[in-house]
Amino acid sequence: ILLASCLVASAQDDDAPQRNTALVRQYPHLDKLLTRADTLIKGGRFRDALEIYLEAIQQFPNHVVPVPVNSSIPKQPVQYEGVLEYCLHDIGRWPEEGKAAYRAHFDGFAKVELEAARRAQDLDAIALVAERYPYSSYADDAYALLGGLAFNDGDPQRAVMAYEQLLALPHADVAVPLTLARLAAAYAQVGR
Length: 192
Hints:
- It contains nine helices and two strands, in the order αααββαααααα.
- The protein has about 190 residues and is mostly helical.
- The protein has a two-stranded antiparallel sheet with strand order 1-2.
């Protein structure tokens, strides 16, 4: 009887609706991040907008930003992105002039970090360079290096991910046929 009552109580708990207890912290200066940065971008002042983004990323890395949802459904729940993701997505939509400002700011950091990771042959550090500086002149080099080292180290799944990311970069300066051949070899190792 005791066991049966425990099972019934357990089944009743499973039927109860789940409550979300996550603490979501919204970025506190939305007007600056959304409105002011957008105004600067429209005025071609990409470096100034980048400064706003850098400040937001450094001071509030674990906060979220509400993003508009393109939908015909009225009163759809608000969607959120992390501050870093929001900033990187927005930079991805900048014209080439804006991305040039991004590269002018970040290429030096990316180069130093990639060279240190290359010397140490640290796959995680190489991946971090590509993820941290996706619009830099070194993201393609990082993904190409990561793919080659991962394949040679017997990690074809990681090589597949790196080569796919490399081919997805819109600004990548890579030999596409060679990269596709390397991707095919990694796919074969994975069994795909």
